[in-house]
Amino acid sequence: MERxxxxxxxxxxxxxxxxRGMEGPSIRQVQERLNITGANPRLATDGRFGxxxxxxxxxxxxxxxxxxxxxxGIITWNALFSNEPxxxxxxxxxxxxxxxxxxxxRGMEGPSIRQVQERLNVLGANPRLATDGRFGxxxxxxxxxxxxxxxxSSDGAVGPITWSSLFSQVPLPPSSVVRxxxxxxxxxxxxxxxxxxxxxxxxxxxxxxxxVQRLLQAQGQRVIMTRSTDIFVPLVExxxxxxxxxxxxxxxxxxxxxxxxxxxxxxxxxxxxxxASTAQAAQTVLNEVVAAGVQSxxxxxxxNFSVLRNTNAPAMLLEMNFITNVRDNQLFDQNLExxxxxxxxxxxxxxx
Length: 352
Known about the structure:
single chain, two-stranded antiparallel ribbon, alpha/beta, 6-stranded mixed sheet
């Protein structure tokens, strides 16, 4: 299982493996980067994954000790772009998740199609789509209906224009209203949380929380972290931090775990007796996360967790995929920036 511990990768992995025969802007980015790293012969940056591009990918993989497949998956992508700095939040693309680089159409399958299905559901697809990652007739019909509603060409395919229209609400423009938002990365220090192999929940929680902090601060919000490093913070102190600072919203970020390795998906908890407004806020944030791409939506639930019980502000505990599920871990790593943007977007909507 791969763990991504490098700095933010820019541009972000497009969500699909790039291979010979494909075309698109992500392939152009790969060609440009291979030229920078010394591709010989120099590649035409035409966005077409032909034999010369494949040979250059293999040569790069060989130079980095990677599997020489000629395919640009997430490991090769990250090796290519790991030294590329991400632009500052205000200049980041306004679309999350990023366009996958290929036109999605009926008959195709994959995580990008699941993201489209989830987003169409959030936007009111009728009938509601199965989020199975298969581009069938119902998904095509929902795409056509969406295109018509936005005045786009109604071809039923998701190209860059339709993709941008679907996801263009990320992130929101800076708000003129400043709220105090407390982000609580679960566990820390000697409390590792759930463990799967060498992977520790506390580390995943912190990575995602720091990304959310950065995006919310870019929106002009006052963000307070219960921890910003690998330290232990008692549960009661986490709530006390929110209460002392007059928080408008408290979000505790965790990874789920189960003895059933097939268990997967995301869910958002509120306190047992939390008002309907808090549950609705949790639903708003969850909807945005689901639209960023998950295996399953486990819904908003109620629980008697200490940080929910003892926090005065509306509080939620977001379980971001199962650390005990291999595919969920892949999604967490691939979609970390998209998940952070989704949480930030949902947060901005419920605090306006």
